Amino acid sequence: MELEQQNNRLSNERIFTTSRVWEESKELWKLAGPTIVTAVSQYSLEFVTAAYVGHLGTLELAAVSIVQNVIKGFVYGLMLGMGSALETLCGQAVGAGQFNMLGIYMQRSWIITLTTALLLTPVYIFTSPILKLLRQDKHISELAGKYALWSIPQMFGYALNFPIQKFLQSQSKVRVTTIMLLSVLGVHALLNWVVVMRFSHGLLGAAMVGNLSWFLLIFGQLIYIMSGFFPGSWTGFSLLAFSLKSFIKLTLASAIMLCLELWYFTIIILMVGWLKDPEVAVDAVSTCMNLDVWTLMIALGFNAAVSVRVSNELGAGHPKVAKFAVLMAISTSAIIGTIFTVMIIALKDQFPKLFSDKPPVIYEASKLGYLLAATIFVNSIQIVLQGVAVGAGWQSLVAFITTGCYYLVGLPVCVLLGYKFKLGAHGLWAGLLIGVLLQTAILLLIAWRTNWNKEASQAKKRMRAWGGSTDSMST
User: Fold this and answer.
1) What are phi and psi of 134, to 5 degrees?
2) pLDDT, tens digit, 9 for 90 and up, residues 62-93
3) Which residues cross the membrane (predicted)?
4) Which residues contact 225 (CB under 8 A, 6 or more apart)?
5) CA–CA separation, 255 vs 251, rounded Å?
6) For residue 260, what are the domain limits?
7) Do residue 170 and residue 312 come from a single domain?
8) If residue 262 lies in a helix (H) or strand (E), which one and from where to where?
9) CB within 10 Å: which end of the chain, N or C, has fewer?
10) Phi and psi of 153, rounded to 5°?
11) Residue 473 confidence (pLDDT) above 70
12) Is residue 473 included in any domain, yes or no?
């Protein structure tokens, strides 16, 4: 009711008042808070695994880091990107009051993601020869191949999990998932200590614990959805789920947008593996990336919140509220990013010890501290802009921008600094940061110049063309 009154007043009154800032801030935090805890907890499953494995040895940490950042990063990005199509469609359907389509959209996404997981299974099976083909260290590649093979069930876990989370997120129903994830994370940490450390089952034990943890989470969420808590949006399985033609278009655009983002970081890890002394270099950069991604989970909370706010308000025909939500989300995330930046600089000699007790790794990771801090700040803004893009349905445009900034500018600079000027990991990371900076600047300009009234009209057309009204009539 409070937000509806706000929507009605915005047409005739100034947007930037203390009361409106407070109201929008509360709405953002109501969405972002549980989502942040969910995202941090979900990523912490991998974070905890890396932390335990890191104390087995540099080779084991390098192998798991390569799998997490290259193989799982490739698959995770694809699955998350495909699931992100639901942020646009489900969010705008909620804004338009078409709750009956949400379960259908989730089922369509399951069909696509599970089929994709099946097709990608050979990537896990042939991880070792793939990494060797990419000129990674022989010993790291062989151990990574074993760990990837044992982790195949997790890929199907991703395929089921991300559509479920977008279904819940679009309806602002993430608290139960948050509680489940925290519980699973506690079990995951305990089992890793028992299986990996106490009983010395090494990488096999780490992989088995990871498989179990993901499916505990999925079964818990499925029980929640199918137990009658969503009578308007979950009405059971439907043959309408197989009407995929229009849905695939947005799904692929979403997947490409996010994959181009994540694969950029994956390529950097591979390039680090081509440096001298790859075990130490990979461990050091992976340590920094693990921390970078962990802090990104905070920004991802605002990514999800602004995506829901923008898609809901555009679907409801409230463009000024959508624009205001964008400004608030960017400002709030930037403030938090600044806090993390200061913390990283202050603790740059300490944070590597979370992942390794090897002095060379700790030294190299601490030297990357300033670049890591700058990346964390820029990402706190960039990730929110990605959420704006998903909420408004700009996935194809962002994919085009990302290609130019990352692959035509960022990677050539990485090669130039890392190899030509022999700056090693520092040069590679500096090139990575330049690509991210350029992309962020362009997305900020686009968001600033956007005609939000036109975007609201586009949202209505999308609902009619991609499943809303049409499918509703079909039932």
Assistant:
1) -85, 15
2) 888 888 877 887 787 778 777 777 777 777 77
3) 109-127, 147-164, 176-195, 252-274, 294-312, 324-347, 367-385, 397-421, 427-448
4) 164, 167, 168, 234
5) 6
6) 246-468
7) no
8) helix 245-272
9) N
10) -55, -30
11) no
12) no
403 and 286 in a common domain: yes
- Confidence band (pLDDT; 50, 70, 90) for 474? very low
Q: Do 90 and 307 form a contact (C-beta atoms < 8 A)?
A: no
Mean pLDDT lowest for which of 63-77, 138-152, 368-382, 441-455? 63-77
**Cβ count within 10 A of residue 81:** 26
Distance between CA atoms of residues 271 and 424, nearest Å: 10
Q: How far apart are CA 270 and CA 436, in angstroms?
A: 18
Tally of domains within the chain: 2
* Residue 217, burial from CB neighbour count under 10 angstroms (0-12, 13-18, 19+): buried
**Does residue 187 sit in the same domain as residue 285?**
no
The owner of tokens 């270099």 is 281
One domain, residues 276 and 296: yes
- Distance from chain centroid for Cα 19: 32
pTM given for the model: 0.72
The answer to whether 181 and 37 have CB atoms below 8 angstroms apart is: yes
The last residue of a domain, from among 218, 242, 266 = 242
Q: Which residues of 185-194 are buried (b: 16+ CB within 10 A; e: fewer)?
A: beebbebbee
Q: Are residues 316 and 284 in the same domain?
A: yes
Query: Is the torsion defined by CA of 329, 8, 86, 407 positive or negative?
Result: negative
Q: Fill in the DSSP letter of residue 15.
A: S
Whether 217 and 233 map to the same domain: the answer is yes
CA distances from 459 to 149, 169, 273 (A): 42, 19, 44
DSSP, res 199 = S
Indicate whether 209 belongs to any domain.
Answer: yes
How many CA atoms, within 13 angstroms, populate the side-chain half-sphere of residue 355? 33
Q: How confident is the model at residue 468 (pLDDT cuts 50, 70, 90)?
A: very low
Q: How do residues 27-69 score in pLDDT, each as one tens digit?
A: 888 888 887 887 778 778 887 888 888 778 778 888 888 888 7
Instruction: Pick the last residue of a domain from 192, 221, 242.
Output: 242
Contact call for residues 313 and 39 (beta carbons, < 8 A): no
User: Closest Cα to residue 117, out of 154, 66, 164, 168?
Assistant: 154
Which segments of 193-318 does DSSP mark as H helices, in order? 202-224, 245-272, 278-315
Q: Report the distance separating Cα 106 and Cα 117, nearest Å.
A: 16
CA atoms within 13 Å, Cβ hemisphere of 190: 6
Per-residue tokens: 283: 């461990």
Residues 158 and 238 in one domain: yes
In a domain, 8, yes or no: no
Q: How far is CA 472 from the centre of its chain?
A: 31
